[in-house]
Amino acid sequence: NKKAAGGYLDVDMNVDDSGKRFSLEPVENIFWKHPPGGEYEIAVHNAGTKCHPTKWGGKFTDVKRHIPFKVFLNKDGEMKQFS
Predict the structure, then answer these.
(1) Residue 81: phi, psi to the nearest 5?
(2) What is the rounded distance in angstroms from the CA atom of residue 81 to the CA atom of residue 35?
(3) Mean per-residue pLDDT for 16-45?
(4) Quick check: 1 pLDDT over 80?
(5) Nearest partner of 9 among 27, 24, 22, judged by Cα
(6) Cα gap 1→13, rounded to integer Å
(7) Taking the complete model, does pTM exceed 0.85, yes or no?
(8) Running DSSP on this structure, what letter comes out for residue 73?
(9) What is the DSSP letter of 68?
């Protein structure tokens, strides 16, 4: 769901295996103009790991490999990073 609780997912990378919606360093972006009040939990769910024996220079062949990620939270102009 690209819209929920007043938020909007405006960048959704790697839906495809190639083209402008694919990257070896993908990003996602979710924003709220006016987020609802309350306490939030940030979680990352890897919906699928791309792998192929020869694509991408053979770098991504193991579907069970560790996938590093960073989460950036910009709240009132203050940026925080989580990983």
Answers:
(1) -120, 140
(2) 19
(3) 85
(4) no
(5) 27
(6) 14
(7) no
(8) E
(9) -
What are the CA-CA distances from residue 45 to residues 17, 54, 67, 77 (Å)? 19, 26, 11, 26
CA–CA distance, 23 with 21 (Å, rounded to integer): 7
User: What confidence tens digit (pLDDT) does each residue in 33-61 have?
Assistant: 888 889 988 888 887 788 888 888 888 89
- Report pLDDT for 46: 83
- Indicate if the alpha-carbon torsion angle 67, 14, 82, 57 is positive or negative: positive
Give me 53's structure tokens. 């024996």
Q: What is the DSSP secondary-structure string of 13-64?
A: TTSSSSSTT--SS--EEEEESSPPSS--------------SSGGGGT---TT
Q: Find out whether 24 and 14 touch, Cβ atoms under 8 Å.
A: no
